[in-house]
Design brief:
- The chain is mostly helical.
- It contains 17 helices and no strands.
- The protein is globular.
- The chain starts with a helix and ends with a helix.
Length: 366
Amino acid sequence: SDWGLTLTVLVIPLTIQWWSVWYPGSEPGGGSYVAQRMLAARDERHALGATLWYNVAHYALRPWPWILVALSSLLVFPELTDIQKALPGLDPSLLGHDIAYPAMLTLLPHGLLGLLIASLLSAYVSTMSTHLNWGASYLVNDFYRRFLRPASSEKHLVRVSRLMTAFLMVAAGGVMFLIDTAGEGFQLLLSIGAGTGLLYLLRWFWWRINPYSEIAAMVSSFLVAVGILVARKNGLVLADHWALIVSVTITTVIWVAVTYVTPPTPRATLVSFVKLVRPAGPGWAEVRAEAGVTSSPDSLAQALLGWMLGCAMVYAAMFATGNFLYGRWTSGTVCLVICLTTGALLYRLLTRLLGAGSGQNAGQLG
C-alpha cells in the first residue's frame, strides 16, 4: 500500500542498486572485504561455500533478532514519551523512533548489558581500524609509493602511513559536520559508491576498461555524492531513490566516456591476464585469440543460473524465517520448500562445476 517505500526497499535494490552501487561487504564484481575471506580459505570449494554461507547467515538469520527487538519495542514503548521516560538524560532533539533500540537495552540485566556494550564497542573499533588501515594502504601503496616516492624505505612508508591515518581521521571528522544522523551517513556511503558497481562487474568481462575508467568512476561518484549532500543542506528536496538514479547516471556516463578517450591497458598485460585467468564472455574474445587461448573453463550461462538459484535460496530463507517467527506457517512452509529446492539445485550445479578436480570454475560464480 506504500508505493514509495516499496520503490525504495524492493524495486530499486532489485533493478538498479545490486549492479550499480559499491558498498563494503557486498561489492559488485567482488571486493577487498570478500576477497580477504576467500583468499584465506583452504581451496576454491571452501571459499565458495563460505561465501554462500555468509550470505545466508547475513541476510536470512542475522536481521531477525534485530527485527524482533524492534517489534517488541512497539509493545514496551508504545509512545515516544515512554522512550523519554526510559532515557531521561536524552537530548529532546534526538528523541525519535530509532531510539527504541537503545531504550530496550535498559531492560537488560547488568551482565548482558555489559556484554552487549563490549560487542558494540568491538564492532565499532574493528570497523574504524579496518577502514583507516584500508584507506591508508591505498594512499601509501597505490599512490604515494607508486607515483611520488618509489624508492622509499619501509621505515619511511610506515611513517607516512601514520600521517595518512591521521589525515583520514580528520577528513572523516570534517565530513561528519555535514551529517545529522546515521541514516544520512549510510545514504552518503551508498551515494559515493553509486555508479561504480557496473564498472567493477564489467572489468572482468570487457578488456577495454582501464585504470583511468576506475579513477574516473571513483572521483565522479564522490563529487556527485558530496554535491547532492550539500544541495540537500541548502534546500533541495530529492528522494533517496532519485538521488541514487542521478548519481548512477552521471557516474556511468563519465567513466564510459573516459574509457573511450583514454589509452587501453598495454596489450602484453591483457594477454598475460587472459592466459592466467582465462575469463569468459565475448568481451575478451579478441584478446583470447591473440593470447592463443581457445576457450574459458567458465560458463556464463551456468554462472548466471547459479547466481539466480543462490539469490532465490537466500531470499526464500529470509522470508521463511520471518514467516515462522510471525506464526504464518503456510507462507513459511512455501518459502522453506522454495529454499530447499533451489538449494538442492544449486548444490548439484556447484558439484558439477567444481567436480573432476577442477576448482577453476569457482571464480566466475564467486
